[in-house]
């Protein structure tokens, strides 16, 4: 519009000239005005494109790039400075909306991965999580983020399964070792041990394994103490592990036996 207006004004001045020198003057002035108008339009376009590119950032995601490309086309197709500005503003909004959608997709994917590793405080699981998050952060589209999330969840689950199986085996072995009084155990103690093994083998996660193991050891060893089947050698590590409470239990057992003596 600005260039057309300058052209129209220049032609009008030429048509109004009454002599050849006046025509030449009108022509020169008109060319300058047209060039100035074109420069102003070009400058407005350049500033708008720069603003849009800045909003998109470096190495934008596919959706952000698509919004940027559409916005730049609208700016380049504008025929006036007002039209350029009118194209720039919604273009910036579209670019920002696309960036927000992409950032939200990444954030949601990372949250899903982080949730998946709860109660699995193991280095192998953390390594799988870190790798999955790197893949999400390197993704360049929402589809790529979704694909990285799916692959990451699968990889994390595989590691969790492996780690949990190993933890269950270790816990069962530790329970058998720490509660190693099979030759002295009563049927009730053996029943406790079997139930504890079954609970541990069905544990949902690493935290549950640790809690069930601790619970089983306390219950089994407490029963063994109550039954009076613990030797001094067996009692010593319990005192070291559980402290004063063991001596209190020992004292209670002794007092109980004294109380039932005729």
Which oligomeric form is depicted? single chain
**Quick one: how many beta strands?**
0
What global shape is seen?
Answer: rod-shaped
Element-by-element helix/strand order: HHHHHHHHHH
Estimated radius of gyration: 40 Å
Counted by DSSP, the helix tally is: 10
Span from first to last CA? 117 Å
Content-based structural category:
mainly alpha
* Strand proportion: under 5%
What's the story with the biggest beta sheet?
A: none
Stretches where pLDDT falls below 50 for ≥5 residues? 243-251, 253-258
Task: Please explain how this structure is put together.
It is built from ten helices and no strands. With 262 residues, it is mainly α. Helix 2 (20-56) packs antiparallel against helix 3 (62-77), helix 4 (81-116) packs antiparallel against helix 5 (123-138) and helix 7 (187-201) packs antiparallel against helix 8. The radius of gyration is 40 Å and the shape is rod-shaped.
